[in-house]
Specification:
Structural class: alpha/beta
Order of helices and strands: EHEHEHEHEHEHHEH
Strand order of the largest sheet: 1-4-2-3
Shape: elongated
Strand content: 15-25%
Number of strands: 7
């Protein structure tokens, strides 16, 4: 069977308004962290034995999340990132936060707020790497401008390897966010 043309748009598997998660790490993090519901999973019909795949299937079974098996070609055709590792999931969108709400949440929890404000993050891989590092550093939120940059996409979530599940990305103006944080 011929490979998919690079210029053909993928047949997105997730329904409109939901996030498409691609790859073992992203799907496992979403299931384990439980910040949002995972609604269904598309799995390679001939998965190679792997502990993460086993863990994902076990968690899906415990939570009654439907797991559909399909061919590798269908997964390739549905992939938005080009790297799905034999698994794609559909999940509710990540919770929306404002700088003020996240700041209040940190203060109520008795934590010293730790925010990163980033301007001109034009490449999805860079935002994903920032989120991955931010998760390891204990950052409470990453603030990006409302107009520039892509926001949290399937590529960002894959590169972040769970960081997008743990560290909220807030889209607000940088000057306005700085004003709130200074107060």
């Amino acid at each position: 069977m011929p490979k998919r043309s690079r210029h053909r748009a993928p047949a997105v598997w997730a329904r409109k308004g939901y996030d498409q998660l691609e790859g073992r790490n992203v799907v496992l993090e979403a299931l384990e962290r439980e910040n949002r519901p995972v609604l269904r999973i598309l799995l390679d019909e001939r998965p190679k034995p792997h502990p993460k795949i086993n863990r994902i299937i076990n968690l899906a079974n415990k939570r009654n999340i439907p797991v559909f098996q399909t061919s590798r070609d269908e997964l390739d055709d549905s992939s938005l990132t080009g790297v799905h590792n034999g698994i794609i999931a559909e999940a509710e969108p990540l919770p929306d936060w404002t700088v003020t709400a996240r700041l209040n949440h940190c203060i109520e929890a008795g934590e010293s707020p730790f925010f990163i404000l980033v301007d001109e993050v034009n490449y999805e891989h860079n935002l994903g790497a920032i989120l991955r590092s931010a998760m390891g550093a204990g950052v409470h939120a990453v603030v990006i401008p409302t107009r520039r940059g892509k926001g949290v996409t399937p590529v960002v979530q894959r590169v972040a390897m769970g960081g997008a599940e743990e560290v909220p990305v807030i889209r607000e103006g940088i000057p306005a966010s700085l004003k709130v944080l200074r107060r």
